Protein 1
Amino acid sequence: MRNRFLIALILGVVSLAATAQTIIKSTDSHIKYSGRIAFKNGAAILSWSGNSAKINFNGTGIKASLKDEFGKNYLKVILDGTVLKDVELDSLQHSYDLVSGLASGPHTLELFKRTEWIFGRTLLYGFELEGDSKIEATPLTNTRKIEFYGNSITCGYAVLDTTGKDRGTPPYEDNYLSYAYLTAKHFNAEYSCIARSGIGVMVSWFPLIMPEMYDKLDPADEKSTWNFNKYTPDVVVINLFQNDSWLVKQPQHPEFAHRFGAKAPDEKQIIAAYQNFIKTIRKKYPQANIICALGSMDATREGSQWPGYITKAAEGLHDVKIKTHFFPYKGTAGHPSKTEQQAMADDLIKYIDKNIRW
């Protein structure tokens, strides 16, 4: 009887060992994060478009413990550089099975937040490795670094909506398909994306403008402040003024009155506002190449004054590392489609290759 008990105990221990999981907490140094990431109550907070968490492991599968603030965000699951699936998150904390049943061996798993911060924070508590899988060395940091400041175009608003309805709800937004991320991916560059749909330099469709948002760690927390010493980009791309170009002509809009009173800004004021923001970014990054961009929506259509405002602003700063680049007007309704975002990326890549050494 005693021998049977010992055999059963040994088999139980072996069984438990075989099914045991390795837990990697969100603060573990083996996880490589991209973008501005806050940490609170044992969780990494993924807020910004393009925030990601990457981990190397040797084994057959991996899970993640996640919770979404409002249950509206989507994460891309990327294994060894290939997108496996998109995960719609829940507002309750769950263990999500990211991938399982792999051939045992080295793998890289990345979670990429494709939706913007207005849909809420995504909390990553950690990863769970399947069976006898083991954690590997932290993924390497890329040498090149790029940062984008933008609006809905940069977020990837409605890029997945093929119906022509131009819907900006979470199922149709994907920063992974935006010109911004496509450009970073092409250059194998570290990626930071500071963007919100509807935002402007002087005025937005809501009470927040880029000069008030650009320095936030957690954009939903007005008291949070980003430490710019943590990430120094080689290239900064600023694609703004699309929303300003509409709102300066709408004196009935509450934000027009909020920002301008009763009178629209004149050319001198528009140029000065843009220059002030560029000077702010230059103070944060004294050596960076700054590309003042615009497009590819109607702010760059033929006859628009807005590319000229940006050109005058940039030239007036007398800085050889501050450049301009305008995406051709796409000539279609709504926000850029997947094809149009790729065309923007191709255009920007070509410009950077020709004009910037990094």
Protein 2
Amino acid sequence: MFPALRLRLSGLQPNSNYVLAVEVTPADGARYKFQSGRWTPAGKADPEPPKRLYIHPDSPATGQHWMARLVSFHKLKLTNNLCDKQGYAVLNSMHRYVINFYIAQADQVSQLAFSRSIDTFQFAETAFIAVTAYQNDKITQLKIDHNPFAKGFREAAAALRKDCK
């Protein structure tokens, strides 16, 4: 997911263990289209794909661990493939989503469902529209510039600029 979700935590019990997880959920019941330079609702949302909870790979870890550093969910992957078997979050393209962030006091990931202490946070800043192709050339370039796997795109663009001079 780009940009990656990053959070700084505080207020956890330093010696207690916590499991951190995120879930990508629909923000509303609409499908969107990009028209005249902006996103507008374009009808009723498609049926929701199955939800998948993404557990942070450091889980479980102590409150001290989580509070000592910026927590990054850079390994969270998104797809529109309903048959995905990699554990990616499955989304409908052209739909608006928001991220739910969960903190559960638990000694094991398997205890997550039974934890008595689960806090849920949703930040409006995480809302986004899932796309299979970027609708804005500046966003495409930003993604290429910051994607460590886009070296080929950067080299091709540099060669193109060189040829145009």
